[in-house]
Amino acid sequence: MMLKFLVKGQKIEILEREVIASDQIAFVTLKFVFDGDWKKFHKVVQFTQCDETYNRVLCTDGLSCLLPAELHAGAVKLSVFGYDADNTSGLRATTVPVTLHIRASGFVGEDADSPIPPTPDLYTQLLQKIGEVQHGKDGADGKDGKDGLSAYELAVENGFTGTLAEWLASLKGKDGENGVDGKNGVNHEAIIEPSVYDLVQVELAKRSKKNEARYSGVSIFSNKIKCAECGSWYGSKVWHSNDKYRRVIYRCNHKFDENRKCETPHVTEEEIIAAFIKAMNILITERDEIIENIQLIRQTVCNVTTLEQEQDKLRSEMEIVVELTQSCVAENARTAQNQEDYQKRYDGLVERYEKVKSRYDAIVRVGKQPVFTTNDKRIRFFKPCCVNFILRHTFKTIFN
After folding, report:
1. pLDDT band at 399 (very low <50, low <70, confident <90, very high)
2. Cα distance between residue 167 and residue 151, in whole Å
3. Quick one: 253 and 306 in the same domain?
4. Structural domain boundaries enclosing 327
């Protein structure tokens, strides 16, 4: 299926509009017709949906590209930008975006949850285009030749007189001598800090099934209240989970085991929290200082401004390196140069880009993790549920 567009100046007109369905892979082709103003530009088609952007390189002679498979049902902004590699003033052409509407497909095949082939980033596509320019595209595959003689048949032609089994046996040589033992390896630096390892071992021992009491982490009050009759732990239960009378209670985990009913009553979560508050208020005297420390923790672990600023800086640097690489290749194609010097400059730009991109990807991965990070080395990671519980049950409740 093909969609056709006319790019005239900074305006995009849709010449042929078709219904687009989601979940397609390499099926929808977009073809562009450019006016004379765009002839000298290296052209890139840009797709934006929500907070994600995908680029498709057309270069100077390209007129079509595939619709990225990652686009899902909903509105998509399409625009085109171009740059002139021969222009030293940073000339760039842009267009006003047009909106494409993708409808939900009815695809429910067995591979519906299989990973979608990702659209290569702009740098990877440019390197591919550069390789095609430097080395040329692969030609069409030739016809298969006739089957050649086997190794045994070649041996017979060259004077071997035995059977196939005898020939195979003749290929086996004598065992070689034992080699010299290698040098002792160098000890690698510990991946996990010893202090962290020791804490994990203590926690694993506490959670081991060998212990009399099975570990539970359902709530902060799990494994904290014991039954006065049988000595078992109290566990949380939910009453009326699907209506307005929903409530969380705690009772003995072995209350109804083996037809032996413990007479200890259940307690509600509100009663436990109230008792906990009362005990904490008796034990803690420096409440103002603790409140101030908790506020500091909240401001520290939830602050990602530094990471966002570094991400923006790295993104700008990657764009600059891409433009420098394009200028380097264009200059080499236009004027005669020492190819060793050119290759050094080119390899240096590629290495610089890979380093910046590696750091950028690392920051993006941290941003997608369900945690809050901090520059304080004493604080590693806090899951949002832990932070919310601390702030809700400690900061708001305990000290009121």
Report:
1. very low
2. 10
3. no
4. 299-398
